[in-house]
Each structure stands twice: as C-alpha cells, then as structure tokens.
Amino acid sequence: MSGMTPTIKDVAERAGVSITTVTNVLHGRGGRFSEGTRERVLKAVEELGYRPNTIARSLVRRRSNTVGVVVEHFRGALLGNPYFSTLLDGILAEAVKAGYQLKIIALERPDLVHVRQSTEDGSIDGAILAAPLYQSPLLRWVEHCRLPHVVAGSSPPALQSACVDVDDEGSVYAAVKWLIELGHRRIAFLGGPTDYWSATQRERGYLRALFEAGITPTSHWIRRGNYSTLSGRLAMEMLLQVRPAFSSVVSCNDWMALGALEAMRRKGVLVPNDISILGFDDVEAAAVASPPLTTIRQPVREIGMTAARLLIQQIEQDTPSVEHVIFPGELIQRDSVVPYSLEPEEGSKPRPHLRRRRRRC
User: Fold this and answer.
1) Which of 66-80, 118-132, 301-315 has the lowest mean pLDDT?
2) Ramachandran angles phi, psi of 325, nearest 5°
3) Homologous superfamily of 8-52
4) Of 111, 154, 207, 271, which has the maximum CB count within 10 A?
C-alpha cells in the first residue's frame, strides 16, 4: 500500500473487522460494537493515516452529507434568538459527530412552492423544521414530501411526522396545580402569540389546571404578547388594572416574565410579596433577575441533539419515521413564587394592588 492513500477497506483489514463496523465506529454509533473493537479500529486509523473522503463517499451514496435547518420566523435575528441559537447548537453537535454539515434555510415566502424549491433541490439529505408556525406551509409540505425530516419544537400534537419537543401543556398544567396547592386561586396568564403551537399548548395547560380545581378564570386574567420583554411589560401593565385582582401570574416564556417584573417594579408592586410570577424556558437571565425567576426549564439543546439523531437515522437507514420524543418540563423553584396568604408578612406594608384584592375576599 506504499505511496497509496489508505481506504476504509484497508482500515477494516488492519483491524480485523468489517467495513460496516469501521463506519459505525467512525460515526460514533455506539451499541453496535465493543470497546475493544473500537480501540482496534481507531488504532488502525492512526497507524494507516486514514482520512475519510467525504466527497467521494457522497458521490457514491448520492448524498450531500448535509442537514438542512429550515426556519421561517427568525428572519434577521437568527443567532440573536436564544431559543434558536441553543437549538442550533444541539443540532450542530450531533451533525458534526456523524460527519454531516449544516445548511440554514431561511424561508423568504410563506408558500408551498417556495418551501419545495428551498428544500428539494438536492443540496440537503434531510431537514429539521425549527418550531414551525401554527398554519405553516412546512406542515403541509411534510404531509407528502419524501425527504427525511424532523420537527423540532412547537410541534402539533397530531403531527404524522417525527418530532422532538417539550411537553408544553403538561408542564404548565403541573406548574399551575403547584400554585393552587400553594393557595393561589386567582392566577393570571401572560400568553404568547397564537400562531405558535407552543403558546397554544401552554395556555391549554393553564386552563385545564384551573378548571380541574373548580376555578373559572375571567377573560380579563389572560393577556397575550409576542414572547418579547416589551410585550410582557405592556401586557402586565394591563393586567395590573384588572379587577378582581390576582395573586400570581404564569408567563408563557421567561422574556415576557422579565418584562412583567419591570412593569411591577415601576408600579411599586413587590414580587413575590404582592404577586408571585412563574415563567417558562429557564433562560440565563431568569436566574439573575430580581428576584430570581421561578420557571419551567425545557431542554432546548437536547431537543436539537435528539432531532439531529432522529434525522440522521432516517437518512442512513433510508427509513421514514413518525417517532415523537417529548421531554418533560422541569419546575425550577426560585424566589419569585411564595405561598398565598391573605395576611401580609410582619413588618411589610400592603401594596395598593393587594389592598383592593383583600377587600373583595
């Protein structure tokens, strides 16, 4: 073999294994070989100086070794969006480990023809749809496309495609039940935009927990924003004018909750003495807010990693999948929630918002 570039066949012969085993080791597909086999293969790779020929491999397999990440609503601020950047980080970690590169496909027009032109040009082997909107053409496209695909985040419950998501409804349902157990009966809600599946599911969890507890929410307790801090502040300013007043509020995401904290600070409302507040996502800013924000953590990076694994599995096994992987949300208890009490703590002065509420109780 002197003077010749070593091949994967040479590696297999040197290690005493099959070419398939060498491929599995190099792609990190654990569970298909022993640790001893892995060490022999890696030793043979090092001794021979073998380097995979990605271009040749792609031509033989008629693949691009590229995963497409399709986005439609983060235009202009892709990496500035904490959810998307964390999701992308997880996707990238798995793709690189398996020998794939990424192509970000930002849809410019919300129509089916444009989706097909952007995804079915042969430049990608499969697509990860990043949190598609409620009436997204992507969801109509996946009904008939043959390209391997996975939906990551904000997934419709009845979707007949592979998807990875957090249990939005169940997580908020459990959190609201927890608030009720702490004595809160008047619980407001800062909802997200209704064209996001995640916002719709979280609001369902909120309503289900109240109804099961025999609590009839007034429509005045629900205000919506667009997931931004500003929209959370404006929505909270409106909520503070509502009567009957409330003792706690659940926010559809942390950024809106942080805006709500600012609105209450401006109005002289103390958190959590006057009003408790709970968010969703557990962004970095939640832990350093004043007070630190109680929230529901969703494993965004793990969602991205799992979506990439499912997609690559479809690509390499040439088998479609409708597997749903739903992660539970984790309640992170910090200082922004306390049990409800009609009586103020010793030494504290009742705030105007709470005084009006007490007269009605």
Assistant:
1) 66-80
2) -110, 110
3) lambda repressor-like DNA-binding domains (1.10.260.40)
4) 154
- Which tops the pLDDT comparison, 76 or 64? 64
CATH 3.40.50.2300 domain span(s) along the chain: 66-165+300-327, 168-298+332-360
DSSP β-bridge partners for residue 70: 105, 129
Which are the contacts of 30, defined by CB distance < 8 A and separation ≥ 6? Answer: none
Contact between residue 314 and residue 267 where contact means Cβ atoms under 8 Å apart: no
- At the topology level, CATH places domain 66-165+300-327 in Rossmann fold (3.40.50)
Q: Which fold has domain 168-298+332-360?
A: Rossmann fold (3.40.50)
Task: Please give the angle made by the CA atoms of 321, 327 and 332, to the nearest 5 degrees.
Answer: 165
Is residue 357 within 8 Å of residue 186, measured between CB atoms? yes
Question: What are 206-261's pLDDT values in tens digits?
Answer: 999 999 999 998 889 999 999 999 999 999 999 999 888 899 999 999 999 999 99
Predicted structure pTM score: 0.78
Q: What kind and span of H or E run contains 128?
A: strand 126-130
Q: Residues 65-94: pLDDT tens digits?
A: 999 999 986 555 666 688 899 999 999 999
The residues that bridge with 29 in the sheet, in sequence order, are none
List C-alpha distances in Å: 94 to 82, 98, 99, 100, 247.
Answer: 19, 6, 9, 9, 44
